[in-house]
Amino acid sequence: MAVPIEGEPVQIHSYKHNGHIHRVWEESTILKGTQNLIIGANDRTMVTESDGRTWITREPAICYFHSQYWFNIIGMLREDGVYYYCNLSSPFIYDGEAVKYIDYDLDIKVFPDMTFNLLDEDEYERHRQEMRYPTPIDKILWANVDKLIFLIRQRKGPFAPDFVDGWYERYLTYRR
Q1: Residue 105 annotated as binding?
Q2: Active site residue 78
Q3: Residues with Cβ within 8 Å of residue 147, at least 6 apart in sequence
C-alpha cells in the first residue's frame, strides 16, 4: 500500500458496502502518513455527495484514520470547543489517489464536554439488511463502537485533550 507524503493534498473517498461512492472531500492536507495511520486536515473544503450535490465544510477539521480500527474520527474546531464526528467504517486504504474507506452508517457525535450520542442505528439496520452486511462485519462494527466509547471516556488517542489542537497547529504551518 502506498503512503501519503506529509504536506501533500489528497482526496478522501467514502463508499458504501455495495461499492457505490458515498461522499468525496476534495482536498485534505496530510499531516502524518504511515502504513497504519493517516492524520489529515482541511478547512472549507468542497464535499461532493453521491447525488452530485456539493457543500463546503464550515470549520477546520483534523481527520484520523487507522488501519487496525473500523472507524475514523473527524475533530472539528469550533468557537466553543472541539466536536468529534466518528464514522464506523472499514479500515482505510490509500492507493496513491485518495484515502478510501467504506462507511457503515453508525456514527458517534462527541461534544466538547465529552458527552456523546450514538447516531443512525435505524439507517445501519436498514442498510445491513439491504446490502447484506455479513455477520462477522456486524460484530466487528459493534465491537468498534465499544472501542470508540472507551477511547472517548478515557480521553485517549484522538480524544486526548491536546490532540486536535496540536495537529491543527501543524496544519497551520502548511497553510503559511
Answers
A1: yes
A2: no
A3: 69, 71
